[in-house]
Amino acid sequence: MIAIAHPTAIELLAELDRLGVSVAVKGDRIGLRPATRVPPELLEIIRSCRSQMMDLLSGPRQTPTPRMLPADLPADWHFLWDERAAITAYDGGLTREHAEAAALADILARMQELEKT
User: Fold this and answer.
1) Which CATH number fits domain 1-59: 1.10.10, 3.40.50, 1.10.260, 1.20.144?
2) Phi and psi of 53, rounded to 5°?
3) Considering the entire predicted model, what is its pTM?
């Protein structure tokens, strides 16, 4: 079970994968199979992160976003990206390439959130 107070959508997907649960977008809902493997407390966390998970699972958005590579990140954000990629690869069992891509998406989303405030 996830021991993080506020896991990201990527961390939730990694945990579901670890539990052997497949995840798919079905219209405006998230489908979990088999749902019986998902503990009730994890379901609550999933519900609270539903929109982030939907964005991640739905693929690219219709509106274009600026392309940014990890090398383009400011030093402090690059450090966070590298750490997030390592954790995602190790804990989530993803390949380094997939972990880096997921970590970059997470870091860019966090940067965008901070710009709004």
Assistant:
1) 1.10.10
2) -65, -40
3) 0.52
